[in-house]
Specification:
Blueprint: H1 26-50, H2 53-74, H3 80-90
Helix pairs in contact: 1-2, 2-3
Length: 94
């Protein structure tokens, strides 16, 4: 099984999660954002198989969250918890 294939990877096979504040360097945050995109794509693939359009729309919501995280990363926010705390204030201000 390949760890990058969301249809064959179980949660136990996935890499251990890190505390959000562990992503302190730009390279670590960029890697985290790339993983977020892959997770969203995996969710979308599996949600389409469920066949409920409203459920599939959660992938779109995830995509919007990722866009906000990317915007905050580009502005230099270093701590994911801080990024998350500012998300509500960033919506609609760009």
């Amino acid at each position: 099984m390949k760890a990058t294939d969301p249809t064959t990877t179980t949660p136990l096979e996935a890499a251990p999660a890190q505390h959000p504040s562990a992503f302190s360097t730009p390279a670590e945050r960029e890697a985290m954002l790339a993983k977020m995109h892959r997770a969203k794509e995996g969710f979308y693939f599996m949600a389409v198989q469920v066949g409920d359009h409203a459920f599939v729309e959660f992938a779109g919501m995830m995509g919007e969250y990722i866009k906000l995280c990317e915007a905050l990363h580009e502005k230099g926010f270093k701590d994911q918890e801080l990024m998350t705390a500012f998300l509500a204030g960033m919506v609609g201000r760009e």
